[in-house]
Amino acid sequence: MVVAKDKVVAIDYTLRDSEGQILDQSDAGRPLSYLHGAGMIIEGLESALEGKATDDQFQVVVEPADAYGEFDDGLRQQVPRSQFDDIEDLEVGMQFRVNTDEDEFTVVTVVEIDDEEVTVDGNHQLAGVTLHFDIKVREIRDATREEIEHGHPHGPGGHEH
Ligand SMILES: [Zn+2]
Fold this sequence. Notes:
The protein has helices at about 45-50, 145-150; strands at about 5-15, 20-25, 30-35, 55-60, 75-80, 95-100, 105-115, 115-120, 130-140. It is mainly β. It folds into two domains: about 5-70 and about 125-150, Chitinase A, domain 3; about 75-120, Thrombin, subunit H (Beta Barrel), CATH 2.40.10.330. Strands 1, 2, 3, 4 and 9 form a five-stranded antiparallel β-sheet that branches. A four-stranded antiparallel β-sheet has the order 5-8-7-6, with no helix packed on it. Strand 1 (about 5-15) and strand 2 (about 20-25) form a beta hairpin. The protein starts with 6 loop residues before the first strand and ends in an 11-residue tail after the last helix. The mean pLDDT is about 95. The chain binds zinc ion. The site of zinc ion has 5 residues, from loops.
């Protein structure tokens, strides 16, 4: 069996940036389980997995455009510090959910604070970052009809509900 649409795939992964620093990884013995073709994982990684077999091990480099997008200066914004008056211990690195539209929200990160203004950044933390993945395919199985309807796998490493 190979990785294809409507297969549930379990992978071990390590994600590094271009300097070799580890950004994220699956825990030993607890692979990430996802439904292939459902857009659950970033596009560049999903297409690299297509056609791979169990125990295949490979590296893939995903450019920002196929991952979390390019860094957008327009998403940096200065807001009056008074808007954060009710936040205790405001500091760089804090994240807030802000509504961009009625039902939509985005997460912004505080990147700079001075006496009058706070600079927040709405870029994804990995925007503009080229991603280097080490992947090992652990398991491939057919998705159940229910999993396909839900758009995610169930069971170990997947949705528990
Ligand atoms: Zn479900």
